[in-house]
Structure formats: C-alpha cells, structure tokens
Amino acid sequence: MLFFNLSAFYFFYFAAVGVYVIFMPKVLHDIGYNAFEIGIVFALAPLMRFATPFLFLKHVELNQTVFKTALYLSILTSSLFYFTIENLYAFMLNNAVLGVCLSLILPFLDVTAIKNLGKDKYGKSRLFGSIGFMLVSLILAKFLSEPKIALNYYLCANVLTVIFALLLVKNDVTNVKNIEDESFSFFKYWPFWLSLFFMQMSFGGFYNFFTIYETEHGISLEMTSYLWSFGVICEIIMLYFQGPLLKNNLLTIIKICVGITVVRWLILYIYPDSLTMTFISQSLHAFSFGLYHSTVIMFLYSLYDNKKLAQQFMYGVAYGLGGFVGALLAGWAYGQYLFMYSAIFAIFSLMSLFLL
Predict the structure, then answer these.
(1) How many angstroms separate the Cα of 30 from the Cα of each of 61, 85, 110, 221, 335?
(2) What is the per-residue pLDDT for 292?
(3) What pLDDT, in 10s, does the model give residues 164-185?
(4) Looking at residue 248, what DSSP letter applies?
(5) Roughly what angle, to the nearest 10 degrees, separates helices 250-270 and 292-303?
(6) What is the largest CA-CA distance in the chain?
(7) DSSP string covering 273-332, please?
(8) What is the DSSP letter of 245?
(9) Element spanning 233, H or E
(10) 67, 104 contact by CB (below 8 A)
(11) Phi and psi at residue 219, to the nearest 5°
C-alpha cells in the first residue's frame, strides 16, 4: 500500500507539472500574454523554490503540520487560477504562493520515499511520475480547445496529488526527522554549483517556450505533445538501464551529459522546422535529464556529509535559481536565437565542471 500511495502521488504530481509546463504557457499566449510576461510568470515558482529552503532551514521546521498546510494551500491557489489568470499581477502572486507550496511538498515526500522504499524501489516508484507527465501531454493536447480545460486538468491532478499525500501522512510514514547538523559550504565546490546553475538556465527556453516555439514553426500542438512524450519515454528507458553506467566516474558522466545537452539545443536552433531533427533532440532528454539528474544526486552524496541539505540546495540552486533566471532570460530572448542562447548557457555549465 505504501508503494502504491507513493507511486500515485508521483503520478498525479508530475501530471500536474505536465499541464503547467507543457500547456500553461500556450494558454497564456492564447489569451494575450506576451513572451516577456509569460517568462515572468513562470520564473516565480523556481524563484520561490530557491528562496523557501533558506527560511525553513533557519526559522521553521518542515514537519507534518507545515506539510499539510502546503498541501491545502496548493489546492486553494490552483482554484484561484480561474479568477486570476486574466490579470498579470494577480496571477503572478498566485503563482508565487503556489511555488512556495511546491518547494515543500516534493522534497518532503522524496525523503519519505527514500527512507521507506530504499534506493531500488524508490526509482521504480518515481517512474510513475514520468508516466503521469507523459500521459497528460498526450491526452490534454486532444482536448485543449479553451484555457479553462487546462485549468480543470491542473486542479483535478492537484487534488488527487493532495489526497495521496494525505494518505501517507495518515499512515504515519512521513515522520522523518532531520538528524544531520554538519556544516555546509557552497564555496568548497563552487564550480559544481555554478555548473548546476547554468545547466538549468539552459532549460529555461525549453520548459517555458518549447510548445510555443514548435507550434510557431509549423508543428501542430498534438504533434508537439508527442515530442514531449517521446522525450519522457527516452528518460524512462534511461532510468531503467542506467545502473551499469553509474559505476563509472560520476564527474565524467556529468560532463558527457552536459556536452550532449549543448548538442541538443543546437539541433533545435539549427533545425527549427525539421520534425525528424526535433525528435532526435528530444531523444537526448535521456542524457540531459534522466542520466544527468541521477548522476548529480549521487555525486553530491559523495561530496557532502550533510547529504539531505545538499539535495535541498541542489533543487534550490539548480531548479530554483537557475530555473528562475532561465525563464526570465528565455522570455526576454524568445525568438530565432532562443536555443542558441540555451546552448551557450550549457557550454558555460560544461566549462565550470573543468574547474573542479
């Protein structure tokens, strides 16, 4: 039952992420938001992901009460999307609060999953998140005829996420205490943190504008959803078969993955109208996310004694601050050269690794 509840949580959590990442930018574009405004809106959640850990590590304990409050607030903010989406500033505030909630929910249950399932079963449970993301990309593309439909999907996925998260709390499997009090320093391995930052900056154009970019180059919304799903399928395959690769030098693997990511963005820049080349670029998601993410987690475990804190800041620095800056710059730079800039950021990430 524990495995089922955690798997269901991941499934619906990342299904909601799929709606938010794949379709919400398109929804905002269709109702009149310009590229810069879309970039600002989707920069807020990663910014909150970066800022929130500092508050909760220093002043507030992330316990079940705080966790449940975040769950209920996530439903409230999802419901308010219907009323705030037409107003840029109200929608920005709504997304900021939602970002705080999401910065607490996933890390809290990630720790629970690892503690209760172990490393082997954790991966099998987390895969359901990729499946949820993929399915929503396939299904919603067929029915997204008006903005309200995307909001309906997002709210339903969020409610189901909260239900399964509350079941885990009810069964008292989330009572995980933080017993790590070791000191933590960014400066000791600053080139690696800089690399994480630039790597996620490079994803700003992809996560926030890939759907718009492809549809403006003549690829249908439905076909774009297939492209998203194909990338996730490649990610799932890598997650199943990456074990032997991770026995090699982890830093070398990270360098290879970042190098492949440079190629991935260059393909999108050079061949914006080619469906075949776009599918090839999406196949590289297996390396630039699937293998990269797993290797980074393991490499951080080898660097720091305070492993839990290292993982929290990995999400904050990379997916938080890097995602925030990447989203802003993508909104500013959207156009013909979007993925050329993404490739440049990935090159900076690769260069930083050689300073370790």
Answers:
(1) 41, 12, 35, 13, 17
(2) 92
(3) 999 988 765 656 555 444 556 7
(4) S
(5) 150
(6) 54
(7) T-HHHHHHHHHTHIIIIIIHHHHHHHHHHHH-S-HHHHHHHHIIIIIIIIHHHHHHHHHH
(8) G
(9) helix 221-241
(10) yes
(11) -95, 130
Residue 216's identity, in one-letter code, is E
The model's pLDDT over 296-346, given as tens digits with 9 standing for 90+, comes to 877 887 787 766 667 777 878 888 888 888 888 888 888 889 999 999 999
Structure tokens given for 262: 């440079």
Q: Which helix (H) or strand (E) holds 262?
A: helix 250-270
The number of residues in the chain equals: 356
Cβ contact 284:263 at 8 Å:
yes
The answer to whether 277 and 267 have CB atoms below 8 angstroms apart is: yes
- Domains belonging to the chain, first-starting first, are 1-178 (1.20.1250.20), 185-356 (1.20.1250.20)
By CB atoms closer than 10 A (0-12, 13-18, 19+), residue 158 is buried
* Beta carbons of 39 and 327 less than 8 angstroms apart: yes
Q: Which of 242, 216, 214 is nearest to 127 (CA)?
A: 242
